[in-house]
Amino acid sequence: GAMRSRAEVDATLQTAKLNPAELLPAVHCLNFAPQAGPGECCLLQLEPGLCAELEAGSSLVIRGEKDEQAVLCSKDKTYDMKIADTSNMLLFIPGCKTPEQLNADQASYDIIHSQIAGFSNNYWELRRCRPKLKKLRKLLMEDPYEGPDSRKDQTLTFSKYTTEDLLSLIQASEEEILHQLQVIDACKIEGYWRILEFDYEMKLLNHVTQLIDSESWSLSKVPLRTCLEELGSLEPTEMIEHTLLSYGRKYVDDAGEVYFEMNEDKICRAIAEMLLKNAVKFNLSEFQEVWQQSVPEGMTARLDQLKGLALVDKTSRPETIFLLKVEDLPEDNQERFNSLFRIREKWTEVDITPYIQDLCAEKQTVGALLTKYARSSTQNGVKVYNSRRPIP
Amino acid sequence: LARSGGAGGLAQWVLVELQGEVEPRQSGELAGSLLGDLHYTREGVPVLIVGHHILYGKVVQLEKPFAVLVKRGAGESGPAGPHTHYTVTALIKTKLLFKTRPKPIITNVPKKA
Questions:
Q1: Spatial separation of the C-alpha atoms in residues B50 and B96, rounded to whole Å
Q2: Which of A79, A131, A237, B26 gets the most CB atoms within 10 Å of its CB?
Q3: Half-sphere exposure at residue B100, Cβ-oriented, CA atoms within 13 angstroms
Q4: What is the mean pLDDT of residues B62-79?
Q5: Reading across the β-sheet that carries A347-348, which strands appear in turn?
Q6: Which residues make Cβ contacts (< 8 Å) with residue A52, sequence separation at least 6?
Q7: How far apart are CA A252 and CA B77, in angstroms?
Q8: Is the keyword Zinc assigned to this protein (chain A) (predicted)?
Q9: CA distance B7 to chain A (A)
C-alpha cells in the first residue's frame, strides 16, 4: 500500500488522544517487508564474548551433519544450539532508532518508514559445550600411517584428511581441533593429518630409546642433530623428529643446539600399552616386573602413570591388570557411565576419575558428575559408586 | 556462518517484542502490510499504535544480544555433503518490549485527512 503521510500519522494521534507535544517529533511507520516471513531470518542469542567477536570481524560456523545435533563454533569455543520458544512475537527492524539515537542525532527526522525484515516466536539459544572431538581420532584411525615402506599408502585410498576436511567434519572450533591434533600426536604427512599406527610408533620410539642408551645420553638432554644423523638411514627424518616431539619437550641451549627432555611418564605409558595390548589381562606383579625391565635405563615405571589407560582389578586373586583406554569409551555422558558400569559394577572415586575427567564441562567437577550419573554406597568402609538404574 | 560484508561494521537492528500474535488486518498475508506507528514520548517511552490499540513499552538493553541469521540455501558440496549456509546480517542489542495490555482506542472510524 502507499506510504503513510504526516497527515495520516497526525490523524491517528488525534484519534488516539495522544498529545504530539509530549512526543518526540520523529515517528516510525512500521510495515512488513514484502518478503518478510518466518523462516527466512532467525535469531541467535549470543553468549558473552561472541557479540564482540562478530563485531571484530570473526565468523561463527554452524557444524553438524544430518545425523548430528548442530553446534555453533567460534574461533576457539563450541556451543550446543537449542531452540527456545517464547509466547511473544519478536519483530526485527533494520534502521529503527531508539530515543537516545533520535535525541543525539542532529538531523531532524519526521517520518521514518521502516520495514520489518522478519518475525519469529523463537530463537536459538547457545550453551557452551565440550567440543565433539572423538570423531577426530576415529577419522584419523581409518588409515593410520604405517611408515614409508608400507604398501598401503601407495594405493589411492582416500581416508585421508586435510585441515579443511577436518574443519568441515568435526563439531568443534578450529583452535580446539588443532589443539586436539597436538594432544593425540597427529602429524602432517604430505598435507594430510595422520596418526601413526601403534606398532610403527613403538618401532620409532624404540630406535630413539636404544640410541639414547647406546650413547649414554642424559634423558633430559637428547640432541636432535645426532638423532637425525644416526637414525636417518633407518627412518624418515620427519618421523624421528616427530617421535622426539611427541615423547619429549623441545628446548634450545645457549649455543643454539636443539635438545629434548624426554617425558618419562609418557614413554613408560606407551611401553605399558605395548605390553598390555596383546593380552586380555595380565597378572599384576608379573606385569610390573616385565614393564620395569622394558622401560629405558634410568626410568621408573609406576602404576599412576597408567591412569585412563589401564585398570587394576584388586578383587581377583592374584591381582590383575588390563588395558582400558578412556579414548575408546563413548563420548556421551550417560553412555560413558553405562559402559563403565558394564565393565565394573562398583567403582571407587579414585579408579573412576581418570575415566570421567574429560566429561567435565567448564567449571564442573568430577564430584558433580558422580552425583548426577551414579549412586553412592559404602562397601567395606569404602565409598563406591554404581549405576543409578539397570544397564541395558 | 559468514559475516555479511558491507562497509564498516555489522548493521544494528532493533527488536520489537509484542505479546501474543500479530494478525493481518484484512485476511491476507502479513508481507507488505502496515503494522502501525511507533512514537516515543519525550521521556523515551515507546508508544506503538496498532490498529485500534495503543501499546506502551520500554526500551531494554539486551544482556545477551542477538545475531540475525539469514538462510542462504544449499551450499557447495564438501566432504560433509551439501550444507545450508547462514549469514550474520545484523546484530540486535536493543529491544522495545511491549508487555502492557493494549489499550483500545475508543472511536468509530479513524479520520482520514
A1: 14
A2: A79
A3: 15
A4: 73
A5: A347-348, A382-387, A374-379
A6: none
A7: 45
A8: no
A9: 12
Residues in chain A within 8 Å Cβ distance of B44: 98-100
Task: State the residue range of the domain holding B88.
Answer: 11-20+36-102
3-class DSSP state of A359:
helix
d(CA A391, CA A343): 11
pLDDT at B7 over 80: no
Looking at the 3D structure of chain B, how many domains does it have?
A: 1
Query: Which is more confident, B24 or B99?
Result: B99
Among chain B residues, the shortest Cα distance to A9 is held by B37
* Segment among A41-45, A176-180, A267-271, A366-370 with least mean pLDDT: A41-45
Q: How far is the CA of A278 from the CAs of A214, A271, A282, A317, in angstroms? A: 28, 12, 10, 21
> Per this entry, what is the length of chain B?
113
pLDDT at residue number A39:
65
DSSP assignment letter at A145: B
Which range, of A153-162, A311-320, A354-363, averages the lowest pLDDT?
Answer: A153-162
Domain assignment of residue B6, yes or no: no
Find where cell 564441562 sits: A361
Residues of A in contact with B111 (CB under 8 A): 11, 14-15
- Least Cα distance to B18 among B52, B51, B42, B48 occurs for B48
Whether B87 contacts chain A with CB within 8 A: no
Task: Pick A198-262's CATH classification: 3.30.70, 1.10.10, 1.20.58, 1.10.3470.
Answer: 1.10.10
Using only C-alpha atoms, chain A has a radius of gyration, in whole angstroms, of 31
Mutate to test the interface with A, among B17, B29, B33, B92 (most CBs of A within 10 A): B92
In this prediction, the answer to ipTM > 0.90 reads no
Condensed to tens digits (0 to 9), the pLDDT of residues A235-257 reads 999 999 999 999 999 999 999 99
Q: Which residues is A223 bridged to in the sheet?
A: A259
State the cell numbers at A13: 494521534
